[in-house]
Design a protein that fits this description.
Layout (H helix, E strand, L loop, with lengths): L2 H23 L1 H7 L1 H14 L4 E6 L21 E2 L2 E2 H17 L4 E5 L11 E8 L10 E3 L9 H16 L10 H4 L18 E9 L3 H7 L3 H17 L5
Parallel strand pairs: 1-4, 1-5, 5-7
Antiparallel strand pairs: 2-3, 6-7
Bound molecules: zinc ion.
Length: about 240
């Protein structure tokens, strides 16, 4: 054996010992040695994992931009009492709710009064506030499309209602749920192209009356209603195994 061959053999033996050593040190050594490639594969797993998506519709926002099929409601600009506008409260709550959901790793779309054609998400919530000539009328109400479009709308309503009543303490105004709520245009995929998919769980909420002092006090700070809605949405996503 000449000198070069001996050196080569030495290198081979050393490499084998290193490899054996790695094996014997077990997975920890392997993780630190091949950490980079392991990270890449775990990132791929994260990308493939489904992230929940929530669409938040700001009631009446940019109603004037409704397409031809919804031209009859282009002037449905929302309630107004003095200088208080429903749409401003809807915007503030929607943005706060978006921030809270995004902090939980949820993808959020803020949508105007016109939703994209056949919009799909795990949850769709349309945010509104009501007004009445009866200044004493107050309370919260919600609705999903009737006739029922899927198996999830009802569960979404249950989770959000439960959370909203618990955190906000508003009375139940269910007796004033209107036909316009039960046949809300954004849920009506049979009639309108700009509507949510029948598979997307969706409800419309009326957070309270801006014409009532007590209700207005409770909903004008967006943190309160946004938090109550967030908890309900999270509970729904967990019940559907869409969130850990
Ligand atoms: Zn409204």
């Amino acid at each position: 054996m000449n000198r070069r061959r001996r050196i080569l053999l030495g290198i081979l033996m050393f490499s084998s010992l290193v490899l054996i050593g790695l094996k014997q040190q077990g997975s920890l050594a392997a993780v630190s040695r091949f950490g980079q490639s392991l990270n890449i594969s775990s990132n791929l797993t994260n990308i493939q994992k489904h992230k929940p998506r929530v669409g938040i519709q700001v009631g009446h926002y940019k109603a004037i931009e409704h397409p031809e099929e919804l031209k009859n409601i282009r002037y449905s600009t929302g309630a107004q009492v003095g200088r208080i506008k429903e749409v401003d409260i809807n915007i503030a709550v929607a943005k706060m709710l978006r921030d809270m959901l995004e902090a939980r790793g949820i993808i959020v779309d803020i949508l105007p009064a016109t939703v994209p054609k056949n919009y799909q998400a795990d949850v769709f919530i349309s945010i509104h506030a009501d007004a009445s000539i009866d200044k004493n009328r107050r309370g919260y109400k919600s609705a999903y499309f009737s006739p029922s479009r899927n198996d999830y709308d009802q569960l979404l309503k249950e989770k959000i209602d439960e959370s909203y009543f618990y955190f906000m303490g508003l009375p139940d105004d269910d007796e004033n749920v209107s036909g316009a709520m039960l046949e809300y245009y954004s849920f009506n995929s049979k009639r309108f192209k700009h509507s949510i998919s029948a598979k997307t769980a969706g409800i419309i909420v009326e957070m309270g009356y801006i014409s009532n002092k007590l209700d207005l006090q409770l909903i004008k700070d967006p943190v309160n209603p946004a938090y109550a809605l967030k908890v309900g949405i999270i509970k729904f996503l967990k019940a559907q195994n869409l969130l850990d």
